[in-house]
Amino acid sequence: MSKYNWSVLLGASFLMATSAIGPGFLTQTAVFTAQLGASFACIILLSILIDAAAQLNIWRIITVANQPAQQVANQVLPGLGYAIAILVFLGGMAFNIGNVAGAGLGLNVLLGLDVAHGSIISAGIAIAIFIYREAGKAMDWLAKLLGMLMIALTLYIAYRSRPAMHEVLVQSIFPKTFSFNALLTIVGGTVGGYITFAGAHRLLDAGIGGDRHLRAVNRGALSAIGIASLMRILLFIATLGVIHAGAVLDPTNPPAAVFKLASGEVGHKLFGLVMWSAAITSVVGSAYTSVSFIRSFHPRITQWNRLIIIAFIVVCCAVYLAVGQPVKTLIVAGAFNGLILPVSLAVMLIAAYRPAIVGGYKQPLWLSVFGLATVVLMAWMGCQTIAQLLA
Question: Which pLDDT tens digit goes with each residue over 369-379?
Fold first, then answer.
């Protein structure tokens, strides 16, 4: 694979990972750590296995088919791709309203700007990425730079908080408590909805398709999960250390409280930078991927792709300014995207055994088994969550 393609592959990995690491990701991790303590380590470990199974299947099948997910789904069952595209588009919009809000909050903490003004400025920066002629390269560059920055800053806060790691290791295997809702939500926040397709669709746009790239695609898919999981683990460790020290997180902004309690005012400013980085990369990733799902609806959508992406960002910003974005909605958006995952993954698994879609590709049995187990588990947890909401 050429040097450019390797750069694209790494960019796709960071695009998926930073699409996942948004305000909702930060909020969910802090909230569930406060609720479950060290037992959350077990849920994180399980989520990594589920994420990897989903990501490998989806990236491989989309790449081999050399078609975006909605076109693959339409070949499995006519019209199904349109239904999934609408679900993913709406889920991406729900998340992106929170992403725009998070970007404004980040600039508020970092620079003291009004949250609304910070949101508008951040939306403008995201729009500038897509106005730029080499938007794909700019998107890759932004994802890689800010992704590495977020990890480095959160690593520092995790070091400062110093939790009891022995308890974390024990409860990662033998948890004292367990929450299926937490598992569904963080899986949804990592590979649910539009997120897992972000990197795969970016590869297609860069011309990386067909089974000759499978080894590189495997590496890219696992790297993306590794990056997102590392950020989750570091934030979990940081939050746990703060809680074990006897602190109580501010329910209006749990992740900000973690950074401030661990490292004072410096930590609070670092949180602003992390929040803004997480939010702006998620705004870009969500807008790009959500619109990529409706491009096949009409040739004009492909022709006006950049303008529609820009309009998507403008609408999300306008909705936030009109309605606001509470912490609870970020949690609900993660759960909603978790409900989309079993449907989209099941469709990809069916497509893997359709020669008309994947040609001579032979899907490894172990990968199908893990994928099917993920579908069943996520569907069951989704039904449990819906039953709880309706009760």
Answer: 999 998 998 88
Q: How confident is the model at residue 297 (pLDDT cuts 50, 70, 90)?
A: confident
CA distance 369 to 25: 28
Residues 362-371 pLDDT 10s: 999 999 999 9
Is it the case that residue 11 has pLDDT exceeding 80? Answer: no
Smallest CA-to-CA distance from 84 within 359, 367, 342, 363 is with 342
pLDDT at residue 255 is higher than 70: yes
Total tally of structural domains belonging to the chain: 1
- Both tokens of 99, joined, read 């992403």
SS3 content of the chain, % helix, strand, coil (to 5): 85, 0, 15
What is the rounded end-to-end Cα distance, in angstroms, of the chain?
53
Give the DSSP per-residue string, 331-370. Answer: HHHHHHHHHHHHHHHHHHHHHTT-HHHHTT----HHHHHH
Count, residues in the chain: 391
Distance CA 250, CA 102 (A): 16
Query: Does residue 192 sit in helix, strand or coil?
Result: coil
Question: Which CATH number covers residue 330?
Answer: 1.20.1740.10
Q: How far is CA 41 from CA 62, 192, 250, in A?
A: 31, 20, 22
Determine the pLDDT at residue 6.
66
* Nearest CA-CA partner of 291 in 139, 119, 118: 139
Q: Other C-beta atoms within 10 Å of 352: how many? A: 22
Domain that holds residue 190: 3-390
Q: Which residue has the higher pLDDT, 297 or 325?
A: 297
Q: Let me know: does 87 contact 341? Beta carbons within 8 Å.
A: no
Query: Tokens 């990369």 map to which residue?
Result: 281
In the predicted structure, residue 166 carries a pLDDT above the cut 80: yes
Q: CA–CA separation, 336 vs 100, rounded Å?
A: 18
Task: Name residue 82's amino acid.
Answer: Y
Residue 4 binned pLDDT confidence (cut-offs 50, 70, 90): very low
In this structure, what DSSP letter does residue 249 have?
A: -
Distances from the Cα of 133 to the Cα of 127, 138, 280, angstroms: 12, 9, 19
The backbone torsions φ and ψ at residue 136, rounded to the nearest 5 degrees and listed phi first, read -60, -45
